[in-house]
Amino acid sequence: MTRIEDDKALLAKVTQAVEHAGQQLLARFLTIPAPTTLPDLLAGIDANDAVVEAGLRDALLAALPGSQWAADEEEKGALPAGDWWVADPAEGNVNHLHGRPGWGVTATLVRDGEPVLTVVAIPLTGDTYTALAGRGAFLNGKPIQVSAKQELAAAIVASGQASPGEPKAIGSAMIRSAGKLLDAALLVRLSVPSMLELIDVAAGRLDAFWQHGSVRAGLIGGALLVREAGGLVTDLTGERWTAASPDFLAGPPALQPAILTVLSSTSEYDA
What we know:
CATH architecture of the largest domain: 2-Layer Sandwich
Number of helices: 7
Number of domains: 2
Order of helices and strands: HHEEHEEEEEEHEHEHEEH
Mean pLDDT: 91
Helix content: 25-40%
CATH superfamily of the largest domain: Fructose-1,6-Bisphosphatase, subunit A, domain 1
Strand order of the largest sheet: 1-2-3-4-5-6-7
Distance between the termini: 54 Å
Oligomer: single chain
CATH class of the largest domain: Alpha Beta
Largest sheet: 7 strands, mixed
Structural class: alpha+beta
């Protein structure tokens, strides 16, 4: 087999594993009361992860012998060399537990620090997003492309928390940046999880997404999808984004300079 054939075969195995995990989560949806306390919520998150994570991990590790599992889905920063699976067995877990849409299952293969393959399954709609580095981004097997918007004044942009309990400095930067973009863009929305905002950017339904802070599992697969859909993914200084970057911006090339100009001072965190 050629490397391309190998990657396509691997993508098929990953897609099957992620979609199966998504069906496990779907079977739990709306079957238990919404949490009313923080301990209830945390217990629900653990229960969802327990149903899905082990099977997804085993399937992915078996699909690529010698690969490793990045165990902490809230981890930040770059990974060591080699093949690593970065997955979230219940992306948008809080939404799932509250009976809301906006959840799914994600898995991304990171090779020597770069995302090379990603799959995102959205069980409520039956949609699956996939990307292979250098070979495009797809929704249910059909190519997708970022927005063709040319003007920030006509753009819908979004942001969200990287994770609960962010440091005060990141919260302050987030507030400043949202305020600036409220004056510059058509609409600004704040939502979680980041990955589901990024699939909308890749599919052209949302024009751009920015974030202060950087949780690896929430961004790295979306970064690949957006790049393969023709978008740019940088930090807020305009440098190419990596898992080690402190902040994040994804969108079409035509909008990137204007958004970077608006956000240029907001990445300087106040203590």
